[in-house]
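Box 3.1 A note on notation
Throughout this textbook, protein chains are presented in two layers. The first layer is the amino acid sequence; the second is a token string describing backbone geometry. Keep the layers aligned when reading.
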Amino acid sequence: MGPYLLRRGAGMLVSCVLVITITFLLMELIPGDPAAVLLGPDATPEQVDALRASWGLDRPGIVRYGFYIRNILRGELGRSVFLDQPVLKMIGERAETSLLLGLLSLLVVVGLGVSAGITAALRPRTWTDSALLFVALLGASLPSFWLGLMLMIAFAGRLHWFPSSGFSSIFGAGGLANLRNLVLPALSLGFVNAALVARTSRSSMLDVLQAEYVTTARAKGLAENVVIAKHALRNAAIPILTVVSFTFASLVSGAVVTENVFALPGVGSLIVQSVLKRDYPTIQGVMLAVAIFYVLVNFATDMLYAFLDPRIRYR
């Protein structure tokens, strides 16, 4: 396990350095000057040059890249150009919303996708199988923002069951009751992403149910629910776990449209605001945080492989 962890740690470090470098180069290629955008069209060239110098934008790109790497090693992601706040603090303030939205959406994805896929696999080539596959295809075809708007109109506008926008921390006033604000966004995100999990679960379960050890377990007289849960599902869980893990990472970091539709103060909305304002330090900081999150999810998934399948050993 030790050598494997060292190799994975080195690979994770290389991935993060590549993300830092690529993001920095992309920022260099984006047209527009954040100093000119902040000061407005009435600013004089002297004012723009002075602001660029105060931010260090007048230095060569390789110098700024070196300073950026140095700051990251110190645990600093810079300061927002427009809000004049530490980028790490801004990400931390919005991480709660994105993480909770991702977790709630994941519950919807697993609850709908895995259960639908297993049910379809247990009744192949029946009307149940066809109906579930049709719903999965329908879910994959629906834009999340359209589904979010429909849910907002139905359950917030007409029935008044849930709030239509905004979110307050569960650690503040209201506590866990504030999670009501995330129910509709989680449903819109989860239903759309459950389609891939459902199809993967069905395909994986169909392969496992045809295996000889499942036939042997049934021949021994084991109850069908024991055969499915202990022998079939656990062996079919590896590809399902892979899809679920990457779905969770995308739900947390990629819910840009949904967060803007429901006016949620998450990382996705922060990305949009930063791009529109040419806030380079914030963009770079968010991209680095997202990359690290993906790497950690991937690492945790590899560890879960060994837990689900004792035959997997890391050396």
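The chain has 13 helices and no strands. The radius of gyration is 24 Å.
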